[in-house]
Structure formats: structure tokens, C-alpha cells
């Protein structure tokens, strides 16, 4: 028997051209098609609604501000009391404070001293700033004719008109939204319940923090970065620990999690290899698709379903975990939570370093973005870029996102960056 002197490589994770790779957009579209938003809602005090998804459009019950009021300290008057090209002397008949209105009417030839936020008295149609008027010793106020109707008056309903939609259904509530709700006197809101996300690490080599490290073993870091990323999101978290590379152990943890979590995330055990046990375990109890995605790092990814729970199997390498979480898990949680899927924003920055890359995959290198003396953004690479080198993430503040076709970057080239934002 003759034998070739060269080993023909089998399909593997290191060769991007060994088979058809799925694009990032395709993978996202498939995730969007599979994930169903949570239905249940709860009514909460508005302070507890931060980051939660609004269930029904909120319409304003009032005009905001509810009444016309002064935008400045000064004198409320009717512009018809002024005389073109001349200075008139008006009688000051009282004072309007914020919260304590002037009860009378401001007639012709009269003015009312007024503080910012105070109701505009009947009869007045302008507020002249105090700097543009002159109070005399005998209780008169001198004003020229250079003023127009509506001056320094905040109109009723200028911010929000009664019946306006102020917060859309499906919107995630921001700090400003809480303020808007409070400005309408709304103290409680109906929001979607938080999605429940369970996660576990897989690997016979993993030890947990607190145990003395045995030869050949490593500490499980993925559960900590996952815990950190999930803690920034409005989700309830279940940490299922480390699961050993045995089909029975995988199956047991998946079955237990399926009843409790809307989304189950695992790390490791999804690449091509003898020690990959996720696949048989999932195939027994649910449905699953194994993908090879044209991104680096983070090529292998699994999407599955066990009863109503979605399963996303992330790769094992610590950097790949964080990349795939930001690109696939965050959008999946957005859909689950009942809001629209949104992609991380890209910004342009000038590369300070040469970046190596082969065409064919969309790459997420790690970068340190800063502003130069002109305020323009520049980005340096954050050290060695291996997908196991987690310090390349902890030193970085952004991904440098290089498109499929890119064959590397020279210093001075413009590149796209995506700032780390571990929130939705
Ligand atoms: P796997 O996909 O299971 O083959 O894992 C790929 C690489 O990531 C291996 O070098 C693993 O040791 C490493 N890895 C997997 N899970 C973890 C984890 N939880 N913490 C740190 N490294 C991990
Ligand atoms: Mg493993």
C-alpha cells in the first residue's frame, strides 16, 4: 500500500474555507425567527421599571406643562400696553411665584412681577426679562417697545399635549422615561416580565474559583464574564455551574433548566471534537441546529429548543464567549424581552496599529479607542488577539470590526469600531 507523505486536513475550526459558513446576518435572522417574546406582564412602581419593556403605549392624560408659565424671572404684561418706539411706565400690581399664582388680572398699563415657573396672570401675554426692564423708586416699571407676544412664556402643552403617545409599546424604559411618567403623575406601569436566563459552563478541565487548581485543569472564567454581562441586562439569572463532558450530565442540566428558563446558555462543547457532548444530549430532548458562522472569534454556535426554552450554545474560548454574547445573545434577549432587535452601533476610528487578517470572515479584534488632540477617534489594538486571551478584552474598550473582505489594516486606515456596551 502506498501512503501519501502528507496528511490531508479534515474540516476543522481553524480552516475558514473548509465548508459553507453562515453569515452573521443569517444567524441573527434565524435567531429572530425562533425566539418568542415573553407574554406575561407585571404592574410596577415606575422606579422599578428602569430597563424594562413597556407593554402598552402610554398616552398623556394632561398637557405638560399644564398651564402657561414664565420661562424667566421678570415682568408679565400685555404687549398692547407698550408704545412703539417709546418707553412706557407700568404700574406693578403684584407678584406671581412658582406655585403661588397672582390671583388678579393684569390690565392695560399694568405689570406683575413674575418668577420662573409661575403661572402667567390673566391679561398678560409676555414676560419681559428683569434685565430688560427698569424698576423705579415709586413702584413703576419702565419697559421699551421691543417685545413681542409670547415672549419668555412656556405654552401649556408645549412639551406634551394631552393624548400624545409619550412612551411606545415595546420601548425599553430609560431614566428620562421615568421622569416623563412622573411628570404626568403616573406612578405605576405595566411592563413585560423579565426573561429568565440560565447558564452553565461545560468541560472536564474546569475548576471553580475557591478550589485549589489541579494539574491539567483551568479555572472556569466564562461563568464570571457571562454573569457580568447578564447582570447588566434586565433579566433574572440562574447560574447552573460547571457541567462535565458526559451526555447524562448535559441532559440532566438541560432538562432541569428547560422548565425554569426562557433562555439557556452554555459555553464550550460545541466545536467539532470527540469530547463534545452537547449535541447528543440536545438531540435527545429537543431540537438543535449546529452552525459555523463566518466570524472570528466565535465560529461554532448552536441554536436549539427544549420545550418553550431557547438554547444557545456558545463556543468555549473566553473571548469567543464575549463576542458571541454581544452579537447573538443580546439580540436574542431583546426579542425575548419584547423589544426590537438592534445591532451594536459602528463608529469610525483611525487605526494606530497594523492589524493582520485573512479575507473570508467578519472579525472582532479588540481595541483601545481614544480621542486624539483634534477630538478624532483613533484605535490601538489591545495586545495579543488569540480567542483564549481574555486580557485582550479586559484591556479593551471596543471591538475593531473588520468586514469579510478585509485583508488586514495598515496604520492610518479608517476602521469600524463597536464600543463595549454591556447593556441593551
Ligand atoms: P471547547 O469549545 O469546549 O473545546 O473549549 C474551547 C477552549 O476554551 C478550550 O481551551 C477550553 O479549555 C476553553 N474553555 C472552555 N470553557 C471554558 C471556561 N468556562 N473557562 C475558561 N476556558 C474555557
Ligand atoms: Mg470543552
- What are the segments in which pLDDT stays under 50 over at least 5 consecutive residues? 11-17
β-strand percent reads 25-35%
Shape: elongated
Bound small-molecule species: adenosine monophosphate, magnesium ion
Task: Please give the radius of gyration in angstroms.
Answer: 31 Å
Question: Taking strands numbered 1, 2, ... along the chain, how are they ordered across the largest sheet?
Answer: 7-4-6-5-9-8
Mean of residue pLDDT values: 94
Can you put this structure into words, describing what you see?
The structure is a single chain. This protein has 424 residues and is of the alpha/beta class. It folds into 4 domains: 24-39 and 195-337, Molybdenum Cofactor Biosythetic Enzyme, Chain A; 41-64 and 158-192, Molybdopterin biosynthesis moea protein, domain 2 (Alpha-Beta Complex); 69-154, Molybdopterin biosynthesis moeA protein, domain 3 (Beta Complex); 347-419, Beta-clip. The protein has 7 helices and 26 strands. The chain has helices at 24-34, 175-183, 222-231, 247-258, 278-285, 318-337, 391-394; strands spanning 41-45, 58-59, 69-70, 74-77, 88-96, 110-114, 126-129, 134-135, 140-143, 153-154, 165-167, 188-192, 196-202, 206-207, 218-219, 236-243, 263-267, 287-292, 295-296, 300-306, 309-314, 347-351, 362-371, 377-381, 398-402, 414-419. It has a 6-stranded mixed sheet with strand order 7-4-6-5-9-8, with no helix packed on it. The protein has a 6-stranded mixed sheet with strand order 16-13-17-21-20-18, with helices on both faces. Helix 3 packs parallel to helix 6 and helix 4 (247-258) packs across helix 5 (278-285). The longest helix is centred in the last third of the chain and has 20 residues, at 318-337. The chain is elongated, with a radius of gyration of 31 Å. Residues 11-17 have low confidence and may be disordered. The structure holds adenosine monophosphate and magnesium ion. Residues 202-203, 268-269, 275, 316 line the site of magnesium ion (MG).
Amino acid at each position: 500500500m502506498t501512503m501519501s507523505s502528507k496528511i490531508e486536513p479534515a474540516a476543522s475550526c481553524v480552516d475558514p474555507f473548509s465548508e459553507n459558513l453562515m453569515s452573521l446576518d443569517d444567524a441573527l435572522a434565524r435567531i429572530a425567527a425562533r425566539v418568542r417574546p415573553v407574554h406575561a406582564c407585571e404592574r410596577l412602581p415606575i422606579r422599578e421599571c428602569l430597563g424594562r419593556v413597556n407593554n402598552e403605549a402610554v398616552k398623556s392624560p394632561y398637557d405638560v406643562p399644564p398651564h402657561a408659565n414664565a420661562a424667566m424671572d421678570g415682568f408679565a404684561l400685555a404687549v398692547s400696553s407698550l408704545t412703539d418706539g417709546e418707553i412706557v411706565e407700568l404700574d406693578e400690581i403684584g407678584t406671581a411665584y412658582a406655585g403661588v399664582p397672582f390671583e388678579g388680572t393684569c390690565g392695560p398699563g399694568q405689570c406683575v412681577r413674575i418668577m420662573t415657573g409661575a403661572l402667567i396672570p390673566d391679561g398678560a401675554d409676555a414676560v419681559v426679562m428683569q434685565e430688560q426692564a427698569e424698576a423705579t423708586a415709586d413702584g413703576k416699571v419702565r419697559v421699551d417697545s421691543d417685545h413681542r407676544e409670547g415672549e419668555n412664556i412656556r405654552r401649556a402643552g408645549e412639551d406634551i399635549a394631552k393624548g400624545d403617545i409619550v412612551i411606545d409599546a415595546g420601548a425599553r424604559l430609560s431614566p428620562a422615561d421615568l421622569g416623563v411618567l412622573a411628570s404626568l403623575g403616573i406612578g405605576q406601569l405595566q411592563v413585560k416580565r423579565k426573561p429568565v436566563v440560565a447558564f452553565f459552563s461545560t468541560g472536564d478541565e474546569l475548576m471553580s474559583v475557591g478550589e485549589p487548581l489541579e494539574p491539567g485543569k483551568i479555572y472556569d472564567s466564562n461563568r464570571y464574564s457571562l454573569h457580568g454581562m447578564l447582570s447588566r441586562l434586565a433579566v433574572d439569572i440562574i447560574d447552573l455551574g460547571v457541567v462535565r463532558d458526559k451526555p447524562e450530565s448535559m441532559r440532566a442540566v438541560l432538562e432541569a433548566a428547560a422548565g425554569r428558563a426562557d433562555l439557556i446558555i452554555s459555553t464550550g462543547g460545541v466545536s467539532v471534537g470527540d469530547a463534545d457532548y452537547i449535541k447528543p444530549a440536545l438531540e435527545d430532548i429537543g431540537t438543535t441546529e449546529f452552525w459555523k458562522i463566518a466570524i472570528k472569534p466565535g465560529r461554532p454556535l448552536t441554536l436549539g429548543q427544549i420545550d418553550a426554552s431557547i438554547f444557545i450554545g456558545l463556543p468555549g474560548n473566553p473571548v469567543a464567549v464575549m463576542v458571541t454574547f454581544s452579537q447573538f445573545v443580546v439580540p436574542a434577549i431583546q426579542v425575548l424581552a419584547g423589544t426590537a432587535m438592534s445591532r451594536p452601533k459602528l463608529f469610525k476610528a483611525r487605526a494606530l496599529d497594523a492589524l493582520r487578517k485573512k479575507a473570508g470572515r467578519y472579525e472582532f479584534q479588540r481595541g483601545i479607542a481614544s480621542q486624539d488632540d483634534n477630538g478624532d477617534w483613533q484605535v490601538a489594538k489591545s495586545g495579543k488577539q488569540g480567542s483564549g486571551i481574555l486580557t485582550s478584552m479586559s484591556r479593551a474598550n471596543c471591538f475593531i470590526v473588520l468586514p469579510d473582505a478585509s485583508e488586514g489594516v495598515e496604520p492610518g486606515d479608517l476602521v469600524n469600531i463597536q464600543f463595549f456596551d454591556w447593556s441593551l
